[in-house]
Specification:
Elements: H1 3-9, H2 15-23, E1 27-29, E2 32-33, E3 46-48, E4 51-52, E5 60-65, H3 86-89, E6 96-97, E7 105-112, H4 115-122, E8 130-136, H5 143-149, E9 166-171, E10 174-179, H6 186-193, E11 198-206, E12 209-210, H7 211-214, E13 221-223
The protein binds uracil.
């Protein structure tokens, strides 16, 4: 790849600015300063500001989403993207969340620039399990366990029943719910349907990935290996 294409593709600067970066000696190939932005190099041989190209094979990151930020590029207020390095957002392929969490939901959120990865994880055919933990404003009725497992619960305003979901009641007003699909405000709507409106909600697992294993404070992120979802 050309050096100017590398610098813009991976979010360092625009193609136009690449000549300046080269001139300032910020780019080396096999340890030798590059002389021209149009020179070609293998990605693995390139250092920018002394460091290898970040996420050369695609960006795959787990974020501990804090409360109060929105999974959107456009909306007003604080966005999850404000928590990420600007360089990632400048990458040629748009960076996006894998599905969404509500503004007032915290927890495990995946971020990537790989559209096929987003599709694979959010496709209704895949049924990747997602686990949510929550506290409700009222005791959770024990009958909800069978109701959710039955695959017969129809949410208000919908006609297709929810897929079977596993509810575990962990305390009178607290529970853990495993979903195999992702409908709008699904956990809140399912719990409201059984008379136990959600007060606080956190996603703790997506497929094999557990937030507890990542040691991330709210707002922190780490790289993940996407092949764990294959
Ligand atoms: N269900 C919800 O109600 N909210 C979320 O953010 C995710 C699942």
């Amino acid at each position: 790849m050309r050096i100017d294409a590398i610098l813009s593709r991976f979010g360092y600067c625009s193609r136009r600015e690449a000549a300046q970066w080269v001139k300032r000696g910020r780019v080396t190939v096999k340890g030798v300063a590059v002389k021209s932005a149009s020179a070609k190099a293998e990605l693995g041989d390139v250092l920018v500001n002394g460091a290898p190209i970040e996420f050369p094979d695609g960006l795959y990151v787990a974020l501990h989403k804090p409360l109060g930020c929105t999974c959107s590029h456009r909306e007003e207020g604080e966005l999850v993207y404000d928590l990420l390095p600007q360089q990632w957002l400048n990458r040629g392929d748009g960076v996006s969340t894998v599905g969404r969490l509500d503004k007032e939901t915290s927890g495990l959120l995946l971020i990537t620039d790989d559209g096929a990865f987003v599709h694979a994880l959010t496709s209704p055919k895949r049924h990747v399990p997602k686990v949510y933990e929550f506290e409700c404003a009222a005791p959770i009725p024990s009958a909800a366990v069978a109701q959710f497992a039955s695959g017969e619960l129809v949410l208000h305003g919908e006609t297709t029943p929810c897929l079977p979901a596993e509810l575990e009641i962990t305390a009178e007003c607290c529970g853990r719910l495993t979903l195999h699909e992702g409908r709008y405000h699904q956990v809140r709507r399912m719990m409201a349907a059984v008379g136990a409106p959600v007060l606080s909600l956190m996603r703790t697992e997506i497929g094999p990935l557990k937030l507890a294993d990542l040691n991330l404070a709210p707002g922190e992120w780490c790289a993940i290996d996407p092949t764990m979802f294959a």
